[in-house]
Amino acid sequence: MIKGKFPIHKFNSIETPFYYYDVNLLQQTINTIQSEIKDKPYHVHYALKANSNPRILQEISGKGFGADCVSGNEILRAIENNFDSNQIAFAGIGKTDKEIEIALKNDIFTFNVESIPEMHAINSLAQTENKKARIALRINPNIDAHTHSYITTGLDDNKFGLDEKQIPEILALLPSLSSLKLIGVHFHIGSQITNLSSFKNLCYKINEIQKEFDNTGYILEHINVGGGLGVDYEQPNEFPIANFKDYFNLFSTHLELRKKQTLHFELGRSVVAQCGSLITRVTYLKKGIKKNFLIVDAGMTDLIRPALYQATHHIENLTSNQEALDYDIVGPICESSDIFAKDFKLNKSKRGDILAIRSAGAYGEVMASQYNCRDFAKSFFSDTI
Ligand code: LLP
Question: What is the mean pLDDT of the chain?
Fold first, then answer.
């Protein structure tokens, strides 16, 4: 089995657990995205929710990506880290007045609006500020993303987006909301999508919806298809960069863009997942009643994905090349769900060995908590460690 390349001699003196980011891989990923979209009217807004570590943000903003934010603080974090405010899309079903004001003050690119009451709120706050707020309607396309139910967002029973049937009512309402300007439509069907046919179905749906708009007099300047492209959690060394070529080609082939329309993407996971690893030490080996437990010093407080979504992350022992044995690799937290992997084949391990829990760059550090009064794991970068 191929292992990732890590500066293990440097890891020995660092207190574990910690996040380690391979900056070179991040840059290669960003460059791949850029080269795939360079001749197309496409814009990528990086979804800050996946990882909002300032160093990561600076790498991404430095290459001209826009930002996709879901809170006022994310908007401020994006701006602090050099994203252009006029390239910020602001999503979320529960934008508060305070957050809307932050967005208005910074003249963001667009509010992706998710309900009629939200449109009223943005309109009245924009009026007070004497501004015109650009909005895109987030429409729930009722398309199955074939992913974990917790990260499926585009189905009828999900809380996200507007019902397509509300479009005529909204268009009739818009002239009275004079501080709003409708500039686009937005969709997001879910995350960690590996079956690209879900995106194809989304394109077909958007083509239908566009037809509804064609006769209304509203010109949609942009279509935003959200994020969701999945990564290979099982083979991060074999597939360190997602298949952006097929992903973007799918939209070029199946989505009927109108003249001068731009297509926007909100990619999070596929940009940052593979460049990050959670580095942890083996604290104890414990022979349980039925299982061999490998107890490590990282826990669900550092990386909650396995506990929350039964997610699998590839794990490597960076300090052993002995034969592989079966282990349940668990954290120290007082919860039975604090398990990184069950019956996982890992090189024979001993107390003090250093493990890398791979593909942890997305929804890792950002979802950490201090449950059990634990410290937050620090982060280190390949070029400055
Ligand atoms: N745009 C919107 C409106 C979103 O809700 C999301 C993610 C994205 C873009 C970015 O999607 P991505 O390209 O990263 O798939 N914590 C979960 C994932 C939650 C995703 C939430 N929305 C996990 O660890 O799997």
Answer: 95
Q: Architecture of domain 8-18+274-381 in CATH? A: Beta Barrel (2.40)
Residue 314 amino acid letter = H
The answer to whether 218 touches 258, Cβ cutoff 8 Å, is: no
Question: Which atom of ligand 1 lies nearest, measured to the CA of 367?
Answer: 16
Residue 98 vs residues 73, 180, 182: alpha-carbon distances, Å: 10, 18, 22
Mean pLDDT of 261-268: 98
- The CATH T-level fold of domain 23-273 is TIM Barrel (3.20.20)
112 CA: nearest ligand 1 atom: 3
Average pLDDT value for residue range 32-42: 97
* Whether the model pTM is above 0.90: yes
Under the banding of pLDDT at 50, 70 and 90, the label for residue 288 is: confident
Which residue owns the Cα nearest ligand 1 atom 8?
Answer: 227
Same fold, 8-18+274-381 and 23-273: no
Pocket test for ligand 1, best of 43, 49, 68, 194 (most atoms within 8 A of CB): 49
SS3 assignment, position 187: coil
Ligand 1 close to Cβ of residue 224 (< 6 A): no
d(CA 297, CA 251): 43
| In the chain, domain spans | 8-18+274-381, 23-273
> Is the minimum distance from the CB of 138 to ligand 1 under 6 angstroms?
no
